[in-house]
Specification:
Number of strands: 4
CATH superfamily: Glutaredoxin
CATH architecture: 3-Layer(aba) Sandwich
CATH topology: Glutaredoxin
Helix content: 25-40%
CATH class: Alpha Beta
Distance between the termini: 18 Å
Largest sheet: 2 strands, parallel
Pfam families: Thioredoxin (PF00085)
Radius of gyration: 12 Å
Strand content: 15-25%
Order of helices and strands: EHHEHEEH
Protein name: Thioredoxin domain-containing protein
């Protein structure tokens, strides 16, 4: 998940992300601080946060990238679309 400490829409995810990570434990979740990894965000075309980019075997298999607030249901729907 790409986010930043100052981002209120990113902080909105904090209460339910542990539950999502537990429910989808087959996946490895990596939290990336956008401000510390600007080059990575640029390379992956991640300009809005919070955003999710999914990889399998080093290849991108899906993305949920925008500057809009994301609900628990939207994040779950994105993860389920990866299967």
């Amino acid at each position: 998940m790409f986010s930043a400490d100052w981002c209120p829409d990113c902080r909105f995810l904090d209460p339910f992300m542990p539950e999502i990570e537990e429910a989808y434990s087959d996946y490895t979740f990596v939290h990336v601080d956008r401000d510390k990894f600007l080059d990575l965000c640029a390379d992956l075309d991640v300009y809005g946060i919070p955003s999710f980019v999914a990889f399998r075997d080093g290849k991108e298999i899906g993305r949920f990238v925008s500057k809009d607030r994301k609900t628990k249901e939207e994040v779950e729907k994105f993860i389920e679309s990866l299967a």
